[in-house]
Structure formats: structure tokens, C-alpha cells
Amino acid sequence: MSIIAFDSHKRYTWARIEDENGNNVHECRIEHQRGNIVGFLGRQQPGSVVAVETIGNWYWIIDEIEKAGMRPDANHYLKWAFSEAANSVAVNRKSHPERHVSRLYNRISNRRNHAKAVGAVARHLAEATYWMLTKGEAYRERGAF
Fold first, then answer.
1. CB within 10 Å: which end of the chain, N or C, has fewer?
2. H-type helices in the chain, by residue range?
């Protein structure tokens, strides 16, 4: 059975299909219009699990995945944990202004707002965690070599 992964953005979703060995079978960009995700998944093996990576509120994508007869796998507990960690960065940024995540929060909150900045920090923490687990390395502060 193949593995289907979705990385959702504002106007599109990046889809990747891998075989059982983790080899890339297909990658494509799916524009956010109703029916596009169902159409894409309709060509895949029925009942497959679709891993969804997103920080925003993209529940309609989950609905589209279920309409296509697939099973969405979105871990809401991890989303909550990374969002809480990002909120902690926002609260403690003045006591640790030298940290990369504090600078990231400040840069985005100055241009956008608190919610966007927390989402960006949460995504950064999620990606950092992924790479730490994948490479088996400890966290390294950006810029500290």
C-alpha cells in the first residue's frame, strides 16, 4: 500500500506518494478548489491513509479526503503541543531575545499578528523536531555552530 502525504498551504496542497520502501512515486501541486483533492485521490488505492500536515484550520481538506474514501491522519495532539510551545515562546521572548524562535516570533508579529507568528513558530518547531528525529541529532540553535 502506498503512503500519501499532504502539505497544505494557503492556496494549494503539495501531495507526495511513496511506496512501502519510502521511494518517491509521484509529487504534484493541487490547487485549492473543491473537488480537486477528491479527483486526485480518486486515482489512488481506495482506503489508503493520507497524512495531513497543516497548522491552520483546513477541515474542508479532511472532508475531501473522507469523500474520496480515504482515511485522514492528522495528529491534533501534536498540533496542540507545538502551538502551546509557540505560545510559550511568545510569552518568554523578552527574557530570551537571543533565541532564534524569539527572533522569528518578533519578526512575524511585527509584520502580521500574534496568531500568524505563533503558527509560524509552531511550524518551525515541528520541522525542527522532524529533522532531529530523522537525523538522530540534538537541537542546534540556528547560527550557533
1. C
2. 36-41, 59-67, 76-92, 100-111, 114-135
